């Protein structure tokens, strides 16, 4: 297999090295992954904020062919491990896009959001980077994709929460007809928003 | 940096303030994940965490395996499992549940299932096969979110063997109406291209469609593929250069919708990607480069706003400008850009500036001279990354005059550096320089400390024997040799005295080897002391198992030279229970050897490290043991490939749907069938039945329905037949005359940065600069030596001038239409194993005589040409060409790596008169069948050959309606189209043989069943069967 992955891993950990989001796009055994996280944290955490955002060659993640590009936001480090041909500044702004997207999706993102909504963060990331390749850099587009899924989540949450649905069904009875555009074939499923509360 | 984010993140002082975070807290307070997280944050030690997670995991396991757990609960369980895995605790029991969740759940549960699978498993995990059906089903789903998820998972982890199963479905998605689906499909295909390039060869046309997609997002995604393909084969995509340029021009010109803007820069990432593609296309290709100049110039001009991302574009532009064939105007602008980067107060830009300098300095050393003061400053920069990059830059400009001081700087850096990777990298460079400039050796051996550094330079070499032999070569004198070794032992021992010093593992390995071999030289220390030190080293946890076995070997060696082996036996005892098998083996060896002194002195003689050992590779001394074991009923040894084959047979994938009741005997039958095609009738009958049954009952084998279509029409849409004789718009142009470049004028004045440094510091730096940059330019600052790139420009200018004047010369070749070119493929006599002949027909327009003609080929990934052919008038008598006369030249081509299609490009260059040469480009589309020749073998030979082939592929090919009932018709079609040899037809089975010239056989076993031709191919080449099956399909469909 050709080893031409643009992004090898995306690591997010806090100031104490606690992992908050770990996504490897190239296979490493579990213990190796942990070692990489530790080493990366070790490398990144000892750097001041007034040095450059690039680091070359942690010995574990592939030596001279790879470099680390990171940003430090308050309590969190966002580290992208990429192959050496990748554009440093491009990735640096990609991290920014990712974080700003998180900010939009979580309405003022904080470390806790990343912990408690780990799965959602992964879904957002999946819309930015897919299989190690940059899929989308347009923030609005990413948010739109994630919102499509969230909408689904809400509607399904309502469906399974039967009592809540009953309540809202009653509520809706006297309302004028709500346009139901349930078109399964379309990504923009516009089911009325049956929020449980 | 986003201020909002910055503020919010700062606002959260600690994790425990859950209540103050309404958004995050609401759900989590009640959920199990929430309580898990809260519990973890309250813990103080790693040990406690371990205990807690263990407990959590066993709870998860119990819940997951309980039949009462709903999918909804499972979703929540899975998130907890993901969390535990993230913290580094294995939850392997949950993998199967993740797959189940992806299979059975509704969209939301499925999403968690897929996420968990892609986080837990890797491409080669066995469980992944269970996911294939789910992916197939979801790819066919009408719910777009499910399709998206399936594409995402396919691009993240997908087993290579199963790609054919999903490929047609993913291909279909390229024409999907939704842009996001097309985009994801393109990336999934790119991933398939990376892991199995042969499988996606036939869809290159579709990649082109993706590139021309009306949605810029899809086009952007397709650039990933093109970047990779162009990297592998720049020659094959030259025709796209214009398109890429057009795209870039439109992007730069702001033709994209405003949505694509990022900080009011139009699609910056797309620009970066395009610039990269252009760099690859323009490299070593003046004609392609020439058409890029305008757009590059525009890019440089437009990207002048002060945002991070514009610098990213600028940097990429600079790289492209310096990679492609040079243009003086652009180079000047690019150099200015580099200057801005280097002088920038922003540290990221400075770093990139240094990187850019490192990249261009070999072409244009002047640039380094211009910035010498900045470079000197960077040597003392607080950021070690900047310092390292500076050293890298200096390393590129070393010459005999400045090497000493540069190496000194490197050694300085090494003394401070603790990072193992940097150390090894830099030490390698020092070693390289030391080899290149032998006079440096004195520098290393001056002090003990530097000796240590010199030892570290050895780390770069793979093994220490090599190193010491090298040192022996350099010191012929026995005495000096002994001294060096003693010196090494001494310094290593003193190094071992120090506590808490972290040595790179390689270094420890060299150290233990040297101590093991040469400690005897240092009689006064005594072995016991050395042994103790080594034993202590062995106990350190930071030492890797590999190094431990080196140390163990040293201990063994040492204990041979002494009778007092207390430490050695203690070590042997301790490590004979080690979990590491290699280490345990060493320990046992040590114990046995210490018990048997005679054997030991025989095995480990003193100071014999450099004597050659005779190794009995056939292991003949084991013959007795083997025959004994065989006599007592042991299984005979099977070579690796045979075991591998059997293993793969057991695991072999069945692309056909499972029958209603899979007969148990079938598997065993098919194994016998694999071993001998001639004894196939039994098994084929059986498997035939199963296929038939499966077809009838296909409605009930729901989950596999996607699989059946794999080799249907969609999978292998016949491609447009490339025209037999293809002529490209070739350019005829005189190649450059040798440079007679007058020395470059107009060297830019040296920019000296004024800084706040005190005069003495400044002077120091000036001095340093003069010693560092000596020899780079000539001392006369007005007449600096110009780099090769500048010389090139001059040639170009000369060329353009020359062509104007030459237009009026008597033999006029003013345009390329003068000589018509035809490239014809002529297949050799079909019965021979002849390679493919290419004939070049040159039709002359005017009267001329060719002096020399050369046919050269672009180096190709798949198709290698034996050599470039040169025809000289001395050996080949060129007639005088009169108008319309035709001259034919021939050359042979063979295909080294099988592939379905191999576009071949190259040039024909010829001289007419001394000093006048012309170049014509051609490109011809070759297909695999051009290289296939019949292989005449008998049935017995075929049987033998069949067994020796290691790679096989089995496929069902759809037959045309009139062929369905006979085997002869499709075989004849194959014979005609592909020139294969029908060896025999036994009953309903046909065996067929062919070969890829020069000598790669490919065997086919064919059988007609239920309107399909069941073809089983075998070949020693891993790729040939795949490609052949494609050719067969094509041949049958065309017949």
Topology:
The complex is a heterodimer of chains A (197) and B (1039).
Chain A: E1 7-14, E2 19-24, H1 30-45, E3 54-56, E4 66-73, E5 76-83, H2 88-106, H3 111-116, H4 118-128, E6 129-130, E7 133-134, H5 139-160, H6 162-173
Chain B: H1 3-11, H2 22-30, H3 32-42, H4 46-65, H5 71-86, H6 93-104, H7 107-120, H8 129-139, H9 144-156, H10 163-173, H11 179-195, H12 204-211, H13 216-232, H14 241-252, E1 261-262, E2 265-266, H15 268-282, H16 286-290, H17 293-302, H18 308-323, H19 328-343, H20 347-360, H21 365-370, H22 372-379, H23 384-396, H24 403-416, H25 420-436, H26 441-444, H27 448-458, H28 464-474, H29 478-497, H30 505-518, H31 527-539, H32 545-560, H33 566-575, H34 581-595, H35 597-603, H36 623-631, H37 640-651, H38 664-675, H39 681-696, H40 705-708, H41 759-772, H42 788-806, E3 820-826, E4 836-843, E5 848-849, E6 852-857, E7 863-864, E8 869-872, E9 880-881, E10 886-895, E11 901-911, E12 917-927, E13 932-934, H43 939-948, E14 951-958, H44 968-978, E15 981-986, E16 989-996, E17 1000-1009, E18 1012-1019, H45 1024-1038
Antiparallel strand pairs in B: 1-2, 3-4, 4-10, 5-9, 6-8, 6-11, 7-10, 11-12, 13-16, 14-18, 15-16, 16-17, 17-18
Helix pairs in contact in B: 2-3, 4-5, 5-6, 5-7, 6-7, 6-8, 7-9, 8-9, 8-10, 9-11, 10-11, 11-13, 12-13, 13-15, 14-15, 14-17, 15-18, 17-18, 18-19, 18-20, 19-20, 20-23, 22-23, 22-41, 23-24, 24-25, 25-27, 29-30, 30-32, 31-32, 31-33, 32-34, 33-34, 38-39, 44-45
């Amino acid at each position: 297999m050709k080893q031409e992955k643009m992004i090898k891993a995306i690591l997010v950990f806090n100031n104490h090295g606690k992992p908050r989001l770990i996504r490897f796009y190239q296979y490493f055994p579990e213990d190796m992954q942990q070692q990489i996280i530790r080493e990366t944290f070790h490398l990144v955490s000892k750097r001041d904020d007034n040095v450059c955002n690039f680091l070359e060659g942690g010995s574990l993640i592939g030596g001279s062919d790879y470099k680390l590009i990171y940003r430090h936001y308050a309590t969190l480090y966002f580290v992208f491990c990429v192959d050496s041909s990748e554009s440093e500044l491009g990735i640096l702004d990609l991290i920014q896009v990712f974080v700003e997207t998180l900010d939009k999706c979580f309405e003022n993102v904080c470390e806790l959001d990343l912990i408690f909504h780990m799965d959602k963060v992964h879904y957002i990331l999946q819309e930015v980077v897919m299989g190690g390749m940059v899929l989308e850099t347009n923030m609005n587009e990413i948010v739109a994709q994630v919102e499509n899924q969230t909408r689904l989540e809400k509607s399904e949450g309502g469906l399974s929460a039967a009592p809540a649905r009953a309540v809202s069904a009653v509520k809706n009875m006297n309302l004028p007809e709500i346009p139901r555009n349930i078109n399964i074939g379309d990504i923009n499923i516009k089911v009325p928003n049956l929020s449980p509360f | 940096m986003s201020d909002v984010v910055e503020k919010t993140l700062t606002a959260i002082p600690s994790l425990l303030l859950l209540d103050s975070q309404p958004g995050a807290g609401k759900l989590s307070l009640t959920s199990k994940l929430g309580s898990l997280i809260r519990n973890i944050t309250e813990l103080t030690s790693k040990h406690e965490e371990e205990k807690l997670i263990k407990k959590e995991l066993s709870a998860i396991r119990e819940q997951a395996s309980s039949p009462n757990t709903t999918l909804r609960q499972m979703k929540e369980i899975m998130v907890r499992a993901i969390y535990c895995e993230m913290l580094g605790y294995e939850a392997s029991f949950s993998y199967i549940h993740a797959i189940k969740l992806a299979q059975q759940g509704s969209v939301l549960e499925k999403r968690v299932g897929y996420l968990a699978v892609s986080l837990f498993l890797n491409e080669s995990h066995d469980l992944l096969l269970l996911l294939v059906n789910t992916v197939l089903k979801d790819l066919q789903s009408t719910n777009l979110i499910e399709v998206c998820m399936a594409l995402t998972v396919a691009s993240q982890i997908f087993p290579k063997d199963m790609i054919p199963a999903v490929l047609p479905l993913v291909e279909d998605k390229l024409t999907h109406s939704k842009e996001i689906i097309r985009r994801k499909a393109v990336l999934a295909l790119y991933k398939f291209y990376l892991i199995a390039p042969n499988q996606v060869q036939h869809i290159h046309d579709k990649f082109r469609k993706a590139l021309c997609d009306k949605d810029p997002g899809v086009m952007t995604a397709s650039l990933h593929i093109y970047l990779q393909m162009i990297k592998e084969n720049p020659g094959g995509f030259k025709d796209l250069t214009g398109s890429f340029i057009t795209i870039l021009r439109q992007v730069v010109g702001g033709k994209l919708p405003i949505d694509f803007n990022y900080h009011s820069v139009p699609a910056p990432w797309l620009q970066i990607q395009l610039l990269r593609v252009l760099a690859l296309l323009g490299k070593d290709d003046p004609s392609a480069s020439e058409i890029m100049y305008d757009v590059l110039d525009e890019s440089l001009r437009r990207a002048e706003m002060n945002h991070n991302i514009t610098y990213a574009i600028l940097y990429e532009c600079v790289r492209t400008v310096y990679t492609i064939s040079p243009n003086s105007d652009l180079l000047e602008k690019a150099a200015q850009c580099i200057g801005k980067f280097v002088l920038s107060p922003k540290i990221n830009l400075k770093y990139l500036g240094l990187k850019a300098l490192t990249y261009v300095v070999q072409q244009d050393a002047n640039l380094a001279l211009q910035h010498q003061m900045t470079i000197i400053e960077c040597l003392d920069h607080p950021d070690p990354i900047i310092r390292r990059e500076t050293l890298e830059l200096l390393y590129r400009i070393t010459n005999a005059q400045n090497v000493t001081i540069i190496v000194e700087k490197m050694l300085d850096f090494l003394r401070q550096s603790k990072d193992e990777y940097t150390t090894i990298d830099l030490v390698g460079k020092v070693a390289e320089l030391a080899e290149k400039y032998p006079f440096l050796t004195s520098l290393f051996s001056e002090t003990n400390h530097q000796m240590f550094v010199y030892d570290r330079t050895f780390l770069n070499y793979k093994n220490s024997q090599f190193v010491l032999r090298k040192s022996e070569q350099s010191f012929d004198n026995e005495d000096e040799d002994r001294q060096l070794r003693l010196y090494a032992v001494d310094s290593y021992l003193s190094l071992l005295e120090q506590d808490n010093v972290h040595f790179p593992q390689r270094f420890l390995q060299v150290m233990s080897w040297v101590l093991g071999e040469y400690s005897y030289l240092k009689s006064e220390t005594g072995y016991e002391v050395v042994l103790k030190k080594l034993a202590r080293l062995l106990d350190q946890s930071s030492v890797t198992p590999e190094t431990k076995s080196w140390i163990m070997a040293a201990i063994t060696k040492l204990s041979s030279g002494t009778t007092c082996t207390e430490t050695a036996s203690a070590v042997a005892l301790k490590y004979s229970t080690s979990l590491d098998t290699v280490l345990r083996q060493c320990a046992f060896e040590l114990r046995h050897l210490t018990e048997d002194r005679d054997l030991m002195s025989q095995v480990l003689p003193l100071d014999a490290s450099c004597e050659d050992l005779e190794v009995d590779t056939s292991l003949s001394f084991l013959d007795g043991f083997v025959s004994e074991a065989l006599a007592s009923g042991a299984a005979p040894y099977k070579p690796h490939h045979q075991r591998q084959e059997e293993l793969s047979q057991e695991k072999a994938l069945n692309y056909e749907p499972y029958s209603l009741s899979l007969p148990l005997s079938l598997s065993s039958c098919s194994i016998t069938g694999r071993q001998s095609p001639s004894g196939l009738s039994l098994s084929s009958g059986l498997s035939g039945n199963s296929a038939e049954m499966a077809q009838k009952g296909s409605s009930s084998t729901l989950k596999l329905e996607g699989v059946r279509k794999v080799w249907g029409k969609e999978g292998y849409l016949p491609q447009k037949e490339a025209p037999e004789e293809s002529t490209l718009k070739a350019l005829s142009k005189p190649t450059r005359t040798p440079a007679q470049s007058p020395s470059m004028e107009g060297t830019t004045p040296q920019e000296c940065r004024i800084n706040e440094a005190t005069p003495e510091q400044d002077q120091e730096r000036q001095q340093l600069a003069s010693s560092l940059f000596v020899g780079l330019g000539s001392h006369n600052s007005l007449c600096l030596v110009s780099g090769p790139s500048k010389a090139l420009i001059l040639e170009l200018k000369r060329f353009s001038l020359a062509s104007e004047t030459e237009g009026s010369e008597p033999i006029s070749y003013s345009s390329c239409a003068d000589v018509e070119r035809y490239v014809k493929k002529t297949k050799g006599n079909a019965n021979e194993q002849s390679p493919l002949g290419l004939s070049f027909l040159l039709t002359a327009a005017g009267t001329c005589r060719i002096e020399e003609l050369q046919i050269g080929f672009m180096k190709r990934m798949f198709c290698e040409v034996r050599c470039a052919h040169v025809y000289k008038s001395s050996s080949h008598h060129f007639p005088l060409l009169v108008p319309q006369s035709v001259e034919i030249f021939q050359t042979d081509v063979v295909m080294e790596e099988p592939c379905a299609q191999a576009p071949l490009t190259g040039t024909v260059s010829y001289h007419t008169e001394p000093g006048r040469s012309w170049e014509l480009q051609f490109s011809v589309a070759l297909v695999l069948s051009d290289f296939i020749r019949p292989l005449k073998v008998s049935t017995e030979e075929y049987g033998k050959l069949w067994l020796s082939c290691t790679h096989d592929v089995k496929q069902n090919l759809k037959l045309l309606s009139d062929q369905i009932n006979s085997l002869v018709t499709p075989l004849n079609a194959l014979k005609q189209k592909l020139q294969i040899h029908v060896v025999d037809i036994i009953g309903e089975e046909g065996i067929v043989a062919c070969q890829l010239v020069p000598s790669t056989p490919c065997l086919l076993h064919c059988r007609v069943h239920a309107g399909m031709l069941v073809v089983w191919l075998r070949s020693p080449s891993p790729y040939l069967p795949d490609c052949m099956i494609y050719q067969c399909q094509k041949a049958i469909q065309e017949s």
